[in-house]
Fold this sequence. Notes:
- The chain is mainly α.
- The chain contains 14 helices and no strands.
- The chain is globular.
- The chain starts with a helix and ends with a helix.
Amino acid sequence: MTWTMSTIVAEVFYCVIGFMFILNGVKALKDSGLKTRVGTAAFWFITAFTFIAGPYVPKWITGLCVVVMACLTACRQVRQSASDVPSAETTRKNADKFGYLVFVPALTLAVVAVLVATFWKSLGANNAIGVSALIALIVALCLFKEKPGTALADGTRLLDNVGPTGLLPQVLSALGALFTAAGVGTVIASGVSAIVPEGNKLAACAVYCIAMALFTIIMGNGFAAFSVITVGIGIPFLIAQGANPVVVGALGLTAGYCGTLMTPMAANFNIMPAALLETKSKYAIIFSQIPVALVMLVIHIVLMYVMAF
């Protein structure tokens, strides 16, 4: 690894994330009422190891760690441990006391991330969210007059609420790159050629947009789906017929986002907000988004047919 300011800062953030995983594993071990505390703790400790030591160990070891983590999850050995949850009365009291001030840290995070990514280019855009999160945390602690330990306690509680699903975006994005390298797009192209009539532009638009949404539902990541579906369908069935590549690319990616609204695989968009809002069903947000996503998908097909050709 070539060490630059960007990579050094990134490694610091990865270590901080790994430290949070370790705290979650320790919390599981301390929960005597958790039947799967050994498996749960092992999952979080292994995850912490991959984040902290991943770049410094052979890749096959990291791969083995991922396999073990998947086995622990598949065998239902990863469960949520007990957390100190604020009472409804405390939550209501704080909500009445602070009101809309609760949005200040979130807005700080967004604004600082844009500023860092735009003006501090030597740091790298990938680190912008980490820097902005740190600044937003400081703002929140000062604004609400809380101790740093509160952030650690609530951070592990949120991490535990989301569970292994929170790791899906990283795993699935890697899987998308693997599918592209393996030539899955070529296989899809051969299958679609038997379905889409030659020269039928509307059918090609529909198949491309629907495939983007479906593959995003499976992958949980529109970017991972984009590379595979565009190679397999977008280029041979749309661009090859004269479609504008800019329009195909832009609308194709946002068509994939329609799938993002309908899948639990997009944990950071759908499962994490449900955990934050503490909804009765962790799929409540997805169910409310499905009608909107389907309407948007139809609109995407129409727009691509009208604007791309």
